[in-house]
Amino acid sequence: MRYHKIPDETIRRLPIYLRGLLFLSEAGQQSVSSRDLADFLGANPPQIRKDFSYFGDFGTRGVGYKVDTLARQIRKILKLDVVHKAALVGVGNLGSVVLAYQGFKVYGFDIAAAFDIDSKKIGRKISNITIENVSNLRTLKKRKIDIGIITVPRDAAQETAEALVNAGAKGILNFSPCYITVPKKVKVITIDIAMDLARLPYYMPSS
Amino acid sequence: MRYHKIPDETIRRLPIYLRGLLFLSEAGQQSVSSRDLADFLGANPPQIRKDFSYFGDFGTRGVGYKVDTLARQIRKILKLDVVHKAALVGVGNLGSVVLAYQGFKVYGFDIAAAFDIDSKKIGRKISNITIENVSNLRTLKKRKIDIGIITVPRDAAQETAEALVNAGAKGILNFSPCYITVPKKVKVITIDIAMDLARLPYYMPSS
Known about the structure:
The structure is a homodimer of 207-residue chains. Chain A has 207 residues and is of the alpha/beta class. Chain A folds into two domains: 8-77, Winged helix-like DNA-binding domain superfamily/Winged helix DNA-binding domain (Arc Repressor Mutant, subunit A, Orthogonal Bundle), CATH 1.10.10; 84-194, Rossmann fold. Chain A has eight helices and nine strands. Chain A has helices at 8-26, 34-41, 45-53, 67-77, 93-100, 157-166, 193-198, 200-203, and strands at 31-32, 65-66, 84-89, 109-116, 125-126, 129-133, 147-150, 171-174, 187-190. In chain A, the strands form two sheets. Chain A has a seven-stranded mixed sheet with strand order 5-6-4-3-7-8-9. A two-stranded antiparallel sheet of chain A has the order 1-2. In chain A, helix 6 (157-166) links the parallel strand 7 (147-150) and strand 8. In chain A, helix 1 runs antiparallel to helix 4 (67-77) and helix 2 (34-41) packs across helix 3 (45-53). The longest helix of chain A is centred in the first third of the chain and has 19 residues, at 8-26. The interface between A and B is large, with 61 and 61 residues.
């Protein structure tokens, strides 16, 4: 099956649906209506139905969606049905928090390596991963690591991105609050927690 | 001027545009076309034009948008034209990173207080903020703090949310990977960094 032209916004919401479905599955629920799923996630039912319609409709009228089937389909669409190995560069405060974060496993991610330039950190273990010298980045391809996570200071972000791309990274999750430039074939997603906070006041009642 | 029915997805993108515009402004640029702004942000021009059309068109054909005017308008729409004070609850590793994060100021946020239950932490200073006992949460209203940031362990997230709401919080930024329930008038935005990573493989070229 091929999926054409799924809007970015739908792709952005699929992990949210997936996480909700996995939660329901753990709780023993076998099927769910788009209305109940929407209520649970704080989303709206027509949007959920529209999002799912892009890749075929898995729902049955009156019964709803099969939780496990739908979760499996979303994993497949997002290419999360295989394990992805990631390398983190920059083991400071933020990097350590990201390394320790347990939430990646839900989606099949394995942070398999961590790098730094600080000789005092190299060789130490954080969250069961031994910190390596950044010069080891060249081993990524051999180790089948194709995702880079950037948690270096802002000034070092661009050169880190280039080093990751040269080492074979095809996707980058960037935590530095800056714009980085990479070849078009490489996908960069930048996380800026301030942006999420920035849309909060719009929804808050005026006092 | 009143703004009706702006889609959530547009509201989600406005902080991205705003950050880009502030960056361009700092670089001394006075006007920008939707195409150049799109190129710079890795977005697409029709979407930018459509997003701006919801609240009136600020662009002039052939000239583009005035950077500072547009930035000011977006701030106003997002209600970021006034300073918002926030309180963070849970000063562990993640909480400390969030407290130290400099990116909030861009949008006019001031993390004005931090709380924990650990008596060893209470009274200590992190990023110039003295950690207080959570029992002090009741002072939020008096201190004009109406945003809560939750960085406690998952199991404590729901009760922390309730304590924040009781103390007068109207908006919550939740970093705990769980679903929290609050009264409808309170807006919750949950940040899960794994979700951003989860949409990366979809865009990566197959090997």
